[in-house]
Design goal:
The structure is a single chain. The chain has 6 helices and 17 strands. An 8-stranded mixed sheet has the order 1-16-17-15-12-9-10-11. Strands 2-3-4-5-6 form a 5-stranded mixed sheet, with no helix packed on it. The protein has 287 residues and is an alpha/beta fold.
Amino acid sequence: MWVSDKWKDYELIDCSYGEKLERWGTKFLVRPDPQAVWETPRTHPGWKEPDARYIRSDRGGGRWDIRSLPEIRKISYKDLNFNFRLMNFKHTGLFPEQAVNWDYIADKITAAKRDVSVLNLFAYTGAATVAAAAAGASVCHVDSAKGMVAFAGENAAASGVSDSPIRWIIDDCNRFVRREIKRGKRYDAVIMDPPSYGRGPSGEIWKLETNLWSLALSVSELLSDNALFVLINSYTAGLPPGVLKYISEAIFTKKFGGRSESRELGLPVTESGLVLPCGASCRWERE
């Protein structure tokens, strides 16, 4: 498991009964987490009076019960700075377990000691984009949601990389990749953080289990001769690390050599000393 254990501004304090208690800066949040199926005692006082709690509805979705939180909050990871907000479907605009991947992205780009071009697909609020730009790469950031791309621009400004060579693209990722292939564009690294299900700006339907293989095949046509890495994330239980590795080996390793490694992502839980699983990642890289 790759564990994001270098945080100072974020802490997963406890998790049980389908929820998790987190510290974001100085604020305490309680959010649903279907992985926390255990029924361990809740002894931390933050459980009783959190600054905000997401309450699920029996009809689907839910709402935030907010006690004391400003509209926009700040959080830092090492030299990176981000905004976070209380959003729909329990989200905050940032996935803390991805910090271990931000470190990987920065390390690979820095170690290359050359100009590196990165394509970030399903780029959401841009944490990986910011990490890559801060390490010196040029980045093409692609997401179908206009609001998320704007949010990513705020994160770039917060981390001082607004003037870095970042292309902000609002488009369906599949469609954009096909156009880039026709243009003869090549990238040294590709990051993919696809949702389980989604719709593009023109109503295009995305299903991870159905579309990931074909997208990965297309992405292989965009890699440069000196490609560094491909990073694929999955939050879908039906696509565990072994499935991601099989896809990566069958496409990227077969075509370019190198190797693939895939593991669960996790966050350390302060109260128990254990680790909460938070999805999976696969990394293909040249040896």
